[in-house]
């Protein structure tokens, strides 16, 4: 994770953006016993990529990638219905 994760989260929240940690741990390469490396990922909503990049830069956090994720209608439907589906 970023050494200044708390600073990034604080700066994003101060700007009125929603910040969620979506980090995961990478699996070791096949045939190795190396310890998995953490992969820092964050889900941020409420601002443009340019705004988020500027806030991260000002917080001293280097972003390796900044992407926009588009959700499908199915994803939105499942969120709204609480994943309850009746068949019949």
Automatic annotation (TrEMBL):
Domain of life according to the entry: Bacteria
Protein name: ABC transporter ATP-binding protein
Species name: Streptococcus anginosus
